[in-house]
Amino acid sequence: MDIGTLSPDGHYQWDGEKWLPIQLLTTSEDGFWLWNGNEWIPNPLANTSPNLTPENTTESREIQTPQANVHSQQNVVSSQQVVYPHQYTHQQVMLVRPQQNGWWTTNKIIALVVLIPVVLILLVASLVVFSGFLFVWANSVDIAETPEFGFRHDVEASLYEDLGANRGSFSSVVQYPDFSSTVYIYGEDSDGEFWSGSGVIISEYWVLTAAHVVEDLLVEKSWVFEGSDFEDPDGYMYEISEIILHPGWESDSELLENGMDIALISLEVGIDLSRSAIAAWDNMPNSERLEIGALLYTSGYGLYDEGYSECSSHCLVDESGSYSQRRAWSNILDRDIKNLNTDESYVNDDVWLGGFVVYDFDSPGGNHNSLAQGRSSTLQQGSYGYVGEGSSSATPLNLEGTSVAGDSGGPTFALLDGEWTVIGLTSHGSPTANYGDVAVNTRVSSHSLWICSVQTPNNPILGCE
């Protein structure tokens, strides 16, 4: 018997000594033929025989063996079905193979599947880095190019002092507020540390200020000074009788977001009205008299001594050595926020509502408009979104300015019904106090009921019925 002879059933092949089982046989599409590696033979399992042998067809065949794939292709179609004998079950597994001479080969598709996510990740990362760069660059302008501290660096600093003292061209108390009502507060706490701030006279025996200025002061070791220079030997010092904090102050957040930063000081001796004025204050609880865009003036005894503040290259000195001048500046009302509720109950279950009046410090170039539409944070100040939304002019005033440390508790004036009236008390802002600073002031009218509740028959508060 010749070597390679197939058994009648087609499942074995003679190797010259014994019959060996045939492991790989491919069935023709019509099922009537078997390919033994050399030729097509009839399939003994088929009931009938076809008229044509597989050599007469033009289909492509791919036979898989454990060692290699052998390709034989005569005609190419867009996709073709290739029959593979399954190595475990001997059952046929049908696969679809793409056109071989097309551009979209399997390897290219796999490469694209891998490459597309990588490209997308790199693109997103690039956008994040680029956005971060733009943010840092835009905000770095606020810091790197603005060494000023509280006032315009292109304006003579002494003009702010003249305004605060109502000297020279600023002497008219019709065109400008009478800043003699602004006083200096100085005292010692229980740890022996000294603190200072500003306040405003609202009645003969009463000074209005910020709660954070006086909350830790000892009454017997604290004083109120009047005059444009608190170190002036001709100035006058008043002893304090009592410090009264707003009941909502302890419940305010660390960021002072609820507008409760307000307190009253009762004096032992009444103010000398020949030396200092009593300021009118907004005593309407639900005052609607404020208008966005209104002209404002603020005054205080800010710390401008080198080593005691963030004044950098714009520190100030005066003849006495340490800086002790009262200063004033102008700005525009950008936000009027009221009815801030801390959701806390106080004495007698009262609920006190806070409020703010807010302005920003615009630069001469008009490129530091922090309260412009859509802006709610800067690098130097962080987020100030709690002051509400709105818009703001980027054009600075001639004596545009903002508050610094030491100005806290000082008054902000607006012209209401033809009279310069205290509408706010300096509360907080950025420590750098440079262009772009947002000055947040406690809204006085929000606390008019509390202010009037503190007065006594012997020491009434003007403006209270």
Mind sketching the topology for me?
Layout: E1 12-14, E2 19-21, E3 26-27, E4 33-35, E5 40-42, E6 61-64, E7 69-72, E8 79-85, E9 92-98, H1 106-144, H2 157-165, E10 182-189, E11 194-203, E12 206-209, H3 211-214, E13 217-226, E14 236-245, E15 263-267, E16 280-281, E17 295-300, E18 327-332, E19 335-341, E20 353-360, E21 377-378, E22 382-383, E23 411-416, E24 419-428, E25 438-443, H4 448-454
Parallel strand pairs: 16-24
Antiparallel strand pairs: 1-2, 3-4, 4-5, 6-7, 8-9, 10-11, 10-13, 11-12, 12-15, 13-14, 14-15, 17-18, 17-23, 19-20, 20-25, 21-22, 23-24, 24-25
What can you see in these coordinates?
By secondary structure, the chain is of the alpha+beta class. It is built from 4 helices and 25 strands.
Summarize the structure.
This protein is of the alpha+beta class.
Number of strands: 25
Q: Gyration radius, to the nearest Å? A: 44 Å
Taken as a percent bin, the fraction of beta residues is: 25-35%
For the largest beta-sheet, the strand count, sense and barrel status come to: 8 strands, mixed
Uncertain residue ranges: 48-104, 130-145
Count up the helices: 4
Bin the helical content.
10-25%
Mean pLDDT: 79
The span between the termini is: 132 Å
List the secondary-structure elements in sequence, H or E.
Answer: EEEEEEEEEHHEEEHEEEEEEEEEEEEEH
Alpha-beta classification: alpha+beta
Salient structural properties:
465 residues, alpha+beta, 8-stranded mixed sheet, 6-stranded antiparallel beta barrel, 4 helices, elongated
